[in-house]
Amino acid sequence: MNKSLRRALAPLTAATLGLTLLAGTEATAGPAADPAAAPASASRTSAWTAAWAASPQRPSEGFTANWSQQGFSHQTLRQVVRVSEAGERARIRLSNAYGAGPLHITGATIARSGEGAAVEKGSVRRLTFGGKESTVIPARGQTASDPAVLDVGAEESVTVTLYLAGATGPATFHAQGFADTYRADGDHRADVTGRAFDEKTQSWYYLTGVDVAEGPRTGAVALFGDSITDGFGSTPGANRRYSDALADRIERPVLNAGIGGNLVLNDSAWYGDRGTARFGRDVLDQPGVTTAVVLQGVNDIGFSEAQKAGYERPTFWPAPEVSAQELIAGYRELIRQAHARGVRVVGATLLPFGGSDHHGVHAARVSDEVNAWIRTSGEFDAVADFDRALADPADPERIAPRYDSGDALHPDDEGYARMAAELERVLETSPRV
């Protein structure tokens, strides 16, 4: 059954539940409603499924037009995300993983998205944390909101709004969201229009998850990787990453755990903790995940090639020369972690990258050795052969022109759709995933 159709077949409206809604700056729930009395939350416990996720990164000025280093003070942050599963209740997850001190969240709302920074009238729900409107997240900590009754459809967007009254200091964020995030001065968490939100960027801040409950109980698929998984080269604001294309095709929640520039074996000040270190937090701890797809390693073997080609090596850019056996050892560690938690793992071959700044004699040899091991070792539960799916028939070392975003490394929208089709085939035909 189509995911969006499931919402139509099982509607759950605010009116039938007598909810407290925030419309503009006023809340109503029928006659004599007290706006401060009750948030739009439900108290009973239920199983959660992650419907959207983003992997947190350290604050950095190294990315264009982001607010992570300066943080926020007496400002409202409005973030629009596309969920991949339907549900009748929702909660958000927030991270202060890289905060230098406690993070004070003065208040938060969730709503169905409108155009830009606007939200759908009548859908704004006030979120609480342990029954309270505000919360404090300790440094290196995280939290989840209480559930809010909100009918969410698969492949629909929800808007999460955070009001930060005090100075936050540098902010834990996800650098490359490829979707607009909005900021306004003052408290605008309950605004329906987007008029106050006169600044925008394409990063996400503090928000690392949106979970749904009361939806179908199907295991989530988490896509783990670097900028290719993150969606670099896709059309910004259009939800054309390969995770989005896959979510459109399969009847399972799909989560994106990519970080641009990320490596399997080395930490980076800009590009996040190494894959073997962050895999548990960003994939295995996500509620409802039963399958992980690992597509990572091109930076491990390609950064050193870029350095040899004359690119200046910044301090954030680890560039040791990595062997196939070292990279395979990293994959084995990811497989070990996943299997210890009962999660199945699909190994994805590295895409062709001939002609890119990551390519060279050493990288080409290691890539071929690694891809051969992924295909033949049997250590992964299944294999998605993106290398062959996107290769140029005239030159298999290169990505096919129709799939190339222009840098010979990252796919375009059509390339990401091709990856999703290949992964759909694997998920539907392999008995192990």
Report on this structure.
The protein is of the alpha+beta class and 433 residues long. The chain has two domains: 3-209, no CATH class; 218-429, SGNH hydrolase (Rossmann fold, 3-Layer(aba) Sandwich), CATH 3.40.50. Helices cover 23% and strands 26% of the residues. It has ten helices and 24 strands. The strands form seven sheets. Strands 8-7-12-4-14-15 form a six-stranded antiparallel sheet, with no helix packed on it.
Structural class: alpha+beta
The low-pLDDT segments are: 1-45
Count of discrete domains: 2
Largest sheet: 6 strands, antiparallel
Shape summary: globular
Number of strands: 24
Rg over alpha carbons: 22 Å
Helix fraction by DSSP (H/I, runs of at least 4) = 10-25%
CATH architecture of the largest domain: 3-Layer(aba) Sandwich
User: How many helix segments?
Assistant: 10
Straight-line N-to-C gap:
20 Å
- Strands ordered across the widest β-sheet: 8-7-12-4-14-15
Average pLDDT, rounded to a whole number, is 89
What is the CATH third-level topology name of the largest domain?
Rossmann fold
**CATH level 1 name of the largest domain:** Alpha Beta
CATH homologous superfamily (4th level) name of the largest domain: SGNH hydrolase
Strand content: 25-35%
